[in-house]
Design a protein that fits this description.
The chain is mostly helical. The protein contains 11 helices and no strands. Keywords: Signal.
Length: 184
């Protein structure tokens, strides 16, 4: 902070000194002051000073950004061709896109759950699932060897399940009881 304070002090001293040398009437006009400050900022020393101020963590924390201005700037930047190119490069970075996806995951899940309850969305999903080309792809998928092997393993797992065996035995016993009552 001492460094930032000294930089600000130097800037103020330069401004006061420049203001004293301004006009013949003794008091510089607004335009003269503005020109002097802008000229000082355009120098290498002025640019370096501003850069140092912006790199100072404490100074960055004290700068208050106007939300509508930030929003407008982001929209204008991202909608340009250069902005789109930069955005595509950023999204291509796996680390960035992973962090972005993780930060948005909960909101996406909430949105999806809300949409699944929406009758219009449900109707659209049903239309998609009923599409002839999609149904054809499902049927083609079911004909593949990996799908059949997966189905076989699923059936074998089900048949080996103690719960399924009990339910099957109960169903057979019930059917035999009904059959014997009809026969009697």
């Amino acid at each position: 902070m001492a460094k930032t304070g000294s930089i600000l002090l130097v800037l103020l001293l330069l401004l006061v000194a420049a203001a004293g040398c301004g006009s013949q009437s003794g008091q510089p006009t607004y335009q003269e002051n503005k020109k002097m400050v802008l000229d000082m900022l355009k120098t290498n020393e002025g640019k370096r000073t501003v850069k140092e101020l912006l790199q100072d963590k404490e100074m960055r924390n004290t700068i208050v950004l106007d939300e509508p201005a930030v929003k407008k700037t982001i929209i204008e930047t991202l909608t340009t061709e250069q902005g789109k190119k930069i955005w595509n490069e950023i999204i291509a970075d796996p680390e960035f896109s992973g962090r972005l996806a993780k930060s948005m995951q909960q909101e996406n899940e909430k949105l999806l759950k809300k949409m699944m309850k929406d009758p219009d969305y449900q109707g659209m999903m049903m239309d998609v699932l009923k599409a002839p080309k999609l149904q054809e792809q499902y049927l083609d998928l079911m004909k593949t060897k990996p799908f059949r092997e997966q189905m076989k393993m699923g059936v074998q797992d089900t048949l080996a399940s103690p719960l399924f065996k009990k339910q099957l035995m109960d169903a057979i016993t019930e059917a035999l009881k009904k059959q014997s009552k009809k026969g009697s």
